[in-house]
Amino acid sequence: ELVVLDVGQGLSVLVRTAHHSLLFDAGPAVRDGFDAGERAVVPALHALGVRRLDAAVASHGDQDHAGGLAAVLRAFPAPLRLGPPDIAGEAVRGLDLKTCEAGREWRWDGVRLRFLHPPRHFPYLRNESSCVLRIDSEHGSALLTGDIGEVVERDLVRRAAQTPAETVRADVV
């Protein structure tokens, strides 16, 4: 199940399998102002019956994607926390993120989750360094792209063409 949470500008997507939950981004937060993690994401997770997060992804360090993550992690302390290598920004300071490097994958309840971007040794370039997560299940596929731009999109298509077993085609982007 994919649930896109309305956080205004930015992104927050809940990915649920039969027994696991992953949050991809947590919307914006501004110092001394609105925090989508606290005001929108946490209440939505409670309303959806989420009891725990198994993983949380900060696609990149910009406020509109990662700003609300600290508030979410206070309410749902996910044991696996992921972001691009060398991620920078006030929104992710002190969150102890592991890397979302291309090729890292795992399976939950028959659902394959795999990072397609960024590749090893890719420099941190904010939007262009966004974690790109591919999700495949018997019911369909999804591609969560953070804020990548046209250059990275073309590179993903090129890399997929070189590896016939992989594809970037998805039912939901």
Q: From the alpha-carbon coordinates, what is the Rg to the nearest angstrom?
A: 15 Å
Quantity of strands, as a count: 10
What low-confidence regions span 5 or more consecutive residues with pLDDT below 50? none
Q: Shape from CA axes?
A: globular
Order of helices and strands: EEEHEHHEEEEEEH
Number of contiguous helices? 4
The main pleated sheet reads as:
6 strands, mixed
State the separation between the terminal residues, measured CA to CA.
14 Å
Roughly how much helix do the residues carry, as a percent range?
10-25%
Mean pLDDT rating:
93
Strand-residue fraction? 15-25%
Spatial ordering of strands, largest sheet:
1-2-3-4-5-6
Structural class: alpha/beta
Protein model, in words:
- The chain is of the alpha/beta class and 173 residues long.
- It has helices at residues 36-47, 63-66, 69-75, 150-162, and strands spanning 2-4, 13-16, 21-24, 55-57, 80-83, 98-99, 105-108, 111-117, 132-137, 140-144.
- The strands form two sheets. Strands 1-2-3-4-5-6 form a six-stranded mixed β-sheet, with no helix packed on it.
- Helix 1 packs across helix 3 (69-75).
- The model has no long low-confidence stretch (mean pLDDT 93).
